[in-house]
Amino acid sequence: MSRLTITTLIIFIILNLLFSQIGFAQEKEEEIDASKPTNFYSFIDNTLEYQFRPSGGDVMGYRGNITFAPNDKHLVLGEVPLLYNNSTDYFGIGDVRVRYFYLPYKNYDKFFGAFGPSIDVFVPTSDAKDGIGSGRLTVSPGLTGALMLADWIQMFPVLSYQYISKSNSSTLPDSLNTESHGITFQVIMPVVFGEKFFMTITPIFQMNDIGDERRDRYVQEVMAQYALNPKLQLSAFGSGNFEDNLYVARLGLVVYF
Fold first, then answer.
1. Chain CA centroid to CA 144, Å
2. What's the total number of domains in the chain?
3. Among positive and negative, which fits the CA dihedral 167, 165, 7, 250?
4. For residue 157, what is the domain's CATH number?
5. Considering Cα of 250, then 253, then 256, then 257, what sign does the dihedral take?
6. Which domain holds residue 118?
7. Taking a C-beta distance cutoff of 8 angstroms, is the pair 108, 149 a contact?
8. CA angle, 93 as apex, 90 and 98 as ends, to 5°?
9. Coil vs helix vs strand at 68
10. pLDDT in tens, 188-218
């Protein structure tokens, strides 16, 4: 393990503990409704992850997410995964994620309840041959809306464009090491069972390359979240890419502050 990786891990743990203490110490007046992705809150999401892959080794580790919402219109997210590949025997920092979401309109009393643009960036911080990241820069601007079907169920469609750069791996042949441009459409559907428990069901349709190599995929995601108290929630997540037999399982602890 490199000194940079160890130093980054120590700094992240210290920041995590610091913000966790702040989260427990402060009382938030408004009720937290995390079932709607267009409700913005500041929190730390601590997640254990396992990726089942048919080739290249399984990947496992910790994914830390710090989300800061200065108000109900702006949200900034930073995500650092610390992962291990059991085939390459490599441990390090996977693709780092940064996201900004702006929500100029929100009115849940209307059928069309919210609308806003966002941009997602994934930065490869390891070589693709290490097996813990894509090795490619991904930039994905998108638009999110909200359809208020009923008090207990809503739909949040997300349409995004996706640019993927060439790989940083020197072992990939030039014929395969190309840029790609794609489009992703997903619908986040929360199902609320009560004040403490909800689930989200998210079908995702991906056109990973709108050029000659389409590589279209369907991915299904399911997430469940249970509130231990107003500031502390347990989460479970699963996703499946059935065409490529790629599956992800996560268990998390969310701390609001």
1. 15
2. 1
3. negative
4. 2.40.160.40
5. negative
6. 3-256
7. no
8. 155
9. strand
10. 999 999 889 999 999 999 998 887 667 899 9
